[in-house]
UniProtKB/TrEMBL annotation:
Residues annotated as binding heme b: 206
GO CC term, one of those recorded: plant-type cell wall
Lineage start: Eukaryota, Viridiplantae, Streptophyta, Embryophyta, Tracheophyta
Cofactor(s) named in the record: heme b; Ca(2+)
Site residues by UniProt (Transition state stabilizer): 53
GO MF terms, alphabetically ordered: heme binding; lactoperoxidase activity; metal ion binding; peroxidase activity
Name of the molecule in the record: Peroxidase
Length: 339
């Protein structure tokens, strides 16, 4: 019965989201977000990955409700200090700036949850050359956050393919969504933390971004406690990584998730996996797992248009995860504060 209710609620929320939601109430909403994202990415080339990741980490905990943006209060601890987020999530100040601009233009109209969704789309397109899509809007903001949810529901970099699929299907997404969104996180900067010391996210998004040595160094010297490197890593790539991230070296040093086209949103990430050049275990297993996973990797590596089209569709699907819509939720005036 609980699963029936979950999918009924999910479907109702999806139906209430629509393109052009602010056409009358705040006609410049999307252009304001795009302008601010553009200005911010000119200052910091890593921001596109960070903003996409913010949207992902938001949607996977309590649904797409901007709970990830909330600071701690006297009544709850927010999600920012959760293992997958602490010293890792970025872009909060950019969201603050966007919110301030929107409040000046259309006070109390545009939700923080919708800002995250629009900013993620613009981050894919601006600076990085990725796909665009029409963002369905109408989300409202939560007044609570879930530290425990952030610690338990965001996929780990150590997950197997089956574990990744389970994490996505638990949110109403498909295996295809998982394979597609996996290539997206190349944009992400990964920090070490108590929750696996690594990157948390989805594969296709890994077409841009960086990861700290601490998030993958185990693969280089002592894979799964074997005392040996991960045999799936191509030898030349392994040697370069061992040199960049030596044992006892700087665990916070950054390496690109896509060694070929680190700042471009493209399908090279999938080609890298076929060549044994996946930085994270959760990426490389997509290629080494025989069957559906490897078939997706091959298909996307040879057809960027297919990857872009499916990526846009999967981002829309992810943005539909359990949104709060009228009469539920609120429109925060400050994205960090639940009021």
């Amino acid at each position: 019965m609980s699963y029936v209710f979950f999918f009924f609620f999910l479907s109702v929320g999806r139906c209430q989201l629509q393109t052009g939601f602010y056409a009358s109430s705040c006609p410049n909403a999307e252009s304001i977000v795009k302008s601010e994202v553009s200005k911010a990415t000119q200052q910091d080339s890593r921001l596109p990955a960070s903003l996409i990741r913010l949207h992902f980490h938001d949607c996977f905990v309590q649904g797409c409700d901007a709970s990830v943006l909330l600071d701690d209060t006297s009544s709850f601890t927010g999600e920012k200090t959760a293992g997958p987020n602490n010293n890792s999530l970025r872009g909060f100040e950019v969201i603050d700036t966007i919110k301030t601009s929107l409040e000046s233009s259309c006070k109390g109209v545009v939700s923080c949850a919708d800002i995250l969704a629009i900013a993620a789309r613009d981050s894919s397109l601006l600076q990085t050359g990725g796909p665009s899509w029409d963002v369905r809007l109408g989300r409202r903001d939560s007044t609570t956050a879930s530290l425990s949810g952030a610690n338990s529901q965001i996929p780990s970099p150590a997950f197997t393919v089956n574990q990744l699929i389970s994490a996505f299907t638990a949110k109403g997404l498909s295996a295809e969504d998982m394979f597609t969104l996996s290539g997206k996180c190349k944009l992400i900067r990964v920090a070490s933390g108590s929750y696996g010391n690594g990157i948390y996210g989805y594969a296709g998004a890994h077409t841009i971004g960086q990861a700290k040595c601490s998030s993958f160094s185990g693969r280089l010297f002592n894979n799964s406690g074997s005392g040996q490197p991960d045999p799936s890593i191509r030898q030349g790539f392994l040697k370069s990584l061992q040199s960049a991230c030596p044992q006892g070296g700087d665990a916070t040093a950054l390496q690109p998730l896509d060694v070929a086209t680190a700042t471009t949103f493209d399908n090279q990430y999938y080609s890298n996996l076929l060549l044994g050049r996946g930085l994270l275990n959760s990426d490389q297993v997509l290629s080494t797992t025989v069957g559906t996973a490897r078939n997706f990797v091959k298909a996307y590596s040879s057809d960027q248009s297919k990857f872009f089209s499916n990526f846009a569709g999967s981002m829309i699907n992810m943005g539909n995860i359990s949104p709060l819509t009228t009469p539920n939720g609120i429109i925060r005036s400050n994205c960090r504060v639940p009021s």
